[in-house]
Amino acid sequence: MSDTELLTTPLNALHIELGARMVPFAGYSMPVQYKSGLMAEHLHTRQAAGLFDVSHMGQLKLIGPDAAAALETLMPVDVIDLPVGKQRYGLLLNDEGGVIDDLMVFNQGNGTLFLIVNGACKVDDIAHIQAHIGQRCQVVTMPGQGLLALQCPQAATALARQVPGVEQLVFMSGGAFDWNGAALFITRSGYTGEDGFEISVPGDKAETLARALLAEPEVQPIGLGARNSLRLEAGLCLYSNDINTTTTPPEAGLN
Predict the structure, then answer these.
(1) Residue range 135-147: average pLDDT?
(2) Superfamily of the domain at 3-57+143-234
(3) Is there a contact between 152 and 192 (Cβ–Cβ < 8 Å)?
């Protein structure tokens, strides 16, 4: 895919303004690092709070009374008994037990599951889900949504100034919040092995929210380079690098 064919996230102009080095990733033009460099970004995130643009990732909903039971036929995870307001890490498997993707699933209640899948896999994931359980529930993609991750020890302090009440969430829980008229869906989760939040935001509000968060003294923008080093430090798997369709969950140590 050439640079002219790359997709962009709602924060593309902001990345360029901040001096990010942009690289192709999962079909998107994404920031690998900013002016301070990978090591500084890694250390800042561990010490304070880092803001990541993960809008390239796939967001979708499965809707219907049979959605949880249907999804559980595709994942070795207890989806049926996932409490309302709670999130769980899961693995989407093929018929041979290989990992198609790892993902997050959240029970929003009223027969609605919210899923976040990897950007490089989202087209195939959605096709797989539609083909196997599309007759049992409605599969609704959310291409207009942005996704921000605010991570590490001071994330709650910084985010609570913008979104009061978010500090009351516990790990792997979430809920709907309003920010200046924008409907946010926030979970207390992430992929750094530390505290943090993932924020689903309408694409046309993503840059404004990102600028507000970056104005908080604890927060700096962090690129994909430090995102990778942070997850390596935490021992978290990266799809296509550590797990793929030839890897089963036990082989990946994800029992």
Answers:
(1) 98
(2) Probable tRNA modification gtpase trme; domain 1 (3.30.1360.120)
(3) yes
Q: Is the pTM higher than 0.85?
A: yes
Domain ranges, ordered by start, for the chain: 3-57+143-234, 58-141
Question: Residue written as tokens 């009351």?
Answer: 168
Q: At 174, is the pLDDT very low, low, confident or very high (cuts 50, 70, 90)?
A: very high
110 burial via Cβ count (<10 Å: 0-12, 13-18, 19+): exposed
User: 172 pLDDT exceeds 80?
Assistant: yes
User: Class of the 58-141 domain?
Assistant: alpha beta
DSSP state, residue 7? B
pLDDT category at 4 given cuts 50, 70, 90 is low
